[in-house]
From TrEMBL:
PROSITE patterns hit by this protein: PEPTIDASE_C56_PFPI (PS51276)
UniProt entry tagged with the keyword Lipoprotein: no
Protein name: Class I glutamine amidotransferase-like superfamily protein
Species this chain originates from: Heracleum sosnowskyi
Ranges of residues in domain DJ-1/PfpI: 9-192, 203-385
Coiled-coil boundaries: none
Keyword Transferase listed: no
Protein family (similarity comment): Belongs to the peptidase C56 family.
Keywords assigned by UniProt, alphabetized: Glutamine amidotransferase
Entry-linked SUPFAM superfamilies: Class I glutamine amidotransferase-like (SSF52317)
Length: 393
């Protein structure tokens, strides 16, 4: 939930083909959830066009990260119509897109205009290449993906060692991070650089995870809530802290239903065994294919019932409502879900609310429901409202 003392803040997201999946979507949807208007643009493209994203994953088996296809990211504004003076800041995702964007003279001039005006510039992973190409790093402190160290030093930057891939550093209006693992601090710094104040963040939130959950539906709200200074835990039955859940990329690519591709690996933060609803202020249930098997686990159903019976906020998205249906907590409730889950919802005694448009979410008492990951700005904002978390500008 966001409130504003003045004009609504507006941010530009500079995109390109094969930018890193998380480094585009997490700040894009998180900032919107906080009440910030975000325009996503790409040179040579217009609103409604898409940029392909990549999933970069580190592995102890290899000396470099792997890359596979991510989601298709839909742009919502025209690059050729950008007026930098209308924006309060710019965020530049990392990934391989930066190699060609850094060579684009119009991109260099764009970032120079933000630098000259002293507005916040957020760069992450490989996007510091653009600042180097625009000759903006002389005398500035920054971090980045470790492989950029020699180039950034040559560009005149004071290198801040990326001793972990969650490293983040703020130098005036320049905010830099090593990878998406640092989103918690990176997005938090950017909110404050925009003049934002966070209140009500002393909350503890639990995520109910499983193998092949939709990757956006766990990571976007997880990192968005972390950036608000909440304590966020992720658990999965029969797994402990530090264990991995595999995820899925669900996207619409011209077929009659969504496609599925491998997503990032997601690291759990706590053990499911002994988890107690009384220790948390809210529960979040991501969608994907995980809820299909989690709905058969009696310990999962008991945990959900405990949250609902205590009147604590429960936010469930996409196929997550399969778990709510199996737990018997939807009777008399109004809710939405991914359209294919309508039968589960109706047979569980709930009143079905059509997700039209797909970005629409609903709150009924302590329950927030959404249909799919495009609804994250509303989904996160409505959960924030129930938790009385505010971002004020």
């Amino acid at each position: 939930m966001a409130s504003s003392k003045s004009q609504k803040k507006s941010v530009l997201l500079l995109c390109g083909d094969y930018m890193e999946d998380f480094e585009a979507m997490v700040p894009f949807q998180a900032l919107q959830a906080y009440g910030v208007s975000v325009d996503a643009v790409c040179p040579g493209k217009k609103a409604g066009d898409s940029c392909r994203t990549t999933i970069h994953e580190m592995s102890s088996q290899y000396q470099n990260y792997s890359e596979v296809r991510g989601h298709n990211f839909i742009l919502n504004a025209n690059y050729d119509e950008i007026e930098p003076s209308k924006y309060d800041g710019i965020v530049i995702p990392g990934g391989r897109s930066q190699e060609y964007l850094a060579m684009d003279k119009s991109v260099q001039e764009l970032v120079k205009s933000f630098s000259n005006s002293g507005k916040p510039i957020g760069t992450i992973c490989h996007s510091q290449l653009i600042l180097a190409a625009a000759d903006l790093l002389k005398g500035r402190k920054c971090t980045a993906y470790p492989g950029l160290k020699p180039l950034l030093i040559s560009a005149g930057a004071h290198w801040v060692e990326a001793d972990t891939l969650a490293k983040c550093h703020a130098d005036g209006n320049f905010i830099s991070a090593a990878t998406y693992m640092g989103h918690r601090e990176y997005i938090n710094h950017f909110i404050k650089a925009l003049g934002g104040t966070i209140t009500g963040s002393d909350k503890k939130i639990l995520f109910l995870c499983g193998d092949y959950m939709e990757v956006y539906e766990v990571v976007v709200p997880f990192q968005a809530l972390q950036a608000l200074e909440c304590h966020v835990d992720a658990v999965c039955p029969n797994k402990g802290a530090g264990d991995i859940c595999v995820t899925a990329v669900h996207d619409f690519e011209g077929d009659q239903t969504y496609s599925e591709k491998p997503g990032h690996l997601f690291t759990l933060t706590a053990s499911f065994e002994g988890i107690d609803a009384s220790s948390y202020d809210a529960l979040v249930i991501p969608g994907g294919r995980a809820p299909e098997y989690l709905a058969l686990d009696e310990s999962v159903l008991k945990l959900v019932k405990d949250f609902m019976e205590a009147g604590k906020p429960v936010a469930s998205i996409c196929h997550g409502q399969q778990i709510l249906s199996a737990a018997g907590v939807l009777k008399g409730k109004k809710c939405t879900a991914y359209p294919a889950v309508k039968l589960n919802v109706v047979l569980a005694g709930a009143t079905w609310l059509e997700p039209d448009p797909i970005t629409r979410c609903y709150t009924d008492g302590n329950l927030v429901t959404g249909a799919a990951w495009p609804a994250h700005p509303e989904f996160i904002s409505q959960l924030m409202s129930l938790l009385n978390i505010r971002v004020t500008f």
